[in-house]
Amino acid sequence: MKLRFEDLSSQLASQLKGMTAPIYIVGGDEPLQVSEACGAIRQQARELGYSERHVLHVDKSFDWQGFYAITNSYSLFSDRQLIELRIPTTKPGDKGSKALLEYAKNPPEDSLLLVILGKVDQQTQRSKWFSALDKKGSFVQVWPVEPNRLPVWINQRMRSKGMQPTPVAVQLLVDRVEGNLLAAAQEIDKLFLLFGSENIDEEAVMAAVADSARYDIYSLVDVALLGDVNRVTRMMAGLKAEGAETVLTLWALTREIRTMHAMALKVATGVRVDQVVSQSRVWAKRKSAVTGGLNRHKAQNWELMLQQACRIDRVIKGFSTGNVWNELLQLALMMAGVRLFKANAV
């Protein structure tokens, strides 16, 4: 019987209890979800008394006699055993196929078999050994999360921990992890440790990233607005040396440029800079930096910077050529009032 990964937890208890000889097959090429599915099965097995665990890695040199020995033995110290059979290639070979077919015909009453596979194709699902196991148990097929579903996945995972993320915070995490669910889970865990069950906005995400870095990306933005060219250069070099995420650095710069552009358009209509800053509810500690940026650049300059940011985004994604860190430095220096090179075409 096929089970969706999302439905596994809610069905584990009843399925394990209701099967005389439970068998689980977990297959897929998405490491995090495969790991979590197997972890949930192990946990439920322990709660049901499967206290002895055997882990077998099947490769070309694997001796299937060891599998026979375990499945035909009775433990002196525990009532039930969990047997994990890891077959990353999904091909157990002739001896393995025979052993699994025999197991499926008469499974030991005191054993739970967990077969962990790589990506399971249709040919594997049609094989005799797989079909025999599937008829006696459940097959959890894990699919990679599609890019357009990743924001939903991240949002749901955060909310399952009691966190309340904003859409911008979720999108920032999406950009940061680039489809890697394991990295996304680690970032979410880090945010939970730092902020607990709180509202999570983009500033919280940025703070979590900057928490382990000596050079703060937010500080870089303010230093650029203040026009401190030397510090901008040093901080950008520091971020690069510490392995900061280019996508996060670009996000912070672009976010500020968009905000400054909107304020500059108001200034262009004749509104005083101090009034625009006040109406925009700029934090007190940032008023000096924002005022400096507005006095330095008109709306047209901020538009040019947005074009440059667009080009950097294409470089990061591999659609254009260029050195990302050099491009980011040029963008930050443009904010500071220095123009090193002629802007590249988007």
Concise description?
With 346 residues, this protein is of the alpha/beta class. The chain is 59% helix and 11% strand.
Verbal overview:
The chain is α/β, with parallel strands linked by helices. It has 3 domains: 2-142, P-loop containing nucleotide triphosphate hydrolases (Rossmann fold), CATH 3.40.50; 147-210, Helicase, Ruva Protein, domain 3; 217-336, Zinc Finger, Delta Prime, domain 3 (Up-down Bundle), CATH 1.20.272. The chain is 59% helix and 11% strand. It has 17 helices and 8 strands. The chain has helices at 8-18, 31-47, 64-71, 93-105, 122-126, 128-136, 150-160, 167-177, 181-195, 202-210, 217-226, 229-241, 246-268, 273-279, 287-296, 299-316, 324-336; strands at 2-4, 23-28, 52-57, 81-87, 111-117, 138-142, 164-165, 199-200. The strands form 2 sheets. Strands 1-6-2-5-4-3 form a 6-stranded parallel beta sheet, with helices on both faces. The chain has a two-stranded parallel ribbon with strand order 7-8. Strand 3 (52-57), helix 3 (64-71) and strand 4 form a beta-alpha-beta unit. Helix 3 (64-71) packs parallel to helix 4 (93-105).
Protein topology:
Blueprint: E1 2-4, H1 8-18, E2 23-28, H2 31-47, E3 52-57, H3 64-71, E4 81-87, H4 93-105, E5 111-117, H5 122-126, H6 128-136, E6 138-142, H7 150-160, E7 164-165, H8 167-177, H9 181-195, E8 199-200, H10 202-210, H11 217-226, H12 229-241, H13 246-268, H14 273-279, H15 287-296, H16 299-316, H17 324-336
Parallel strand pairs: 1-6, 2-5, 2-6, 3-4, 4-5, 7-8
Helix pairs in contact: 1-2, 3-4, 4-6, 7-8, 8-9, 8-10, 11-12, 11-15, 11-17, 12-17, 13-16, 13-17, 16-17
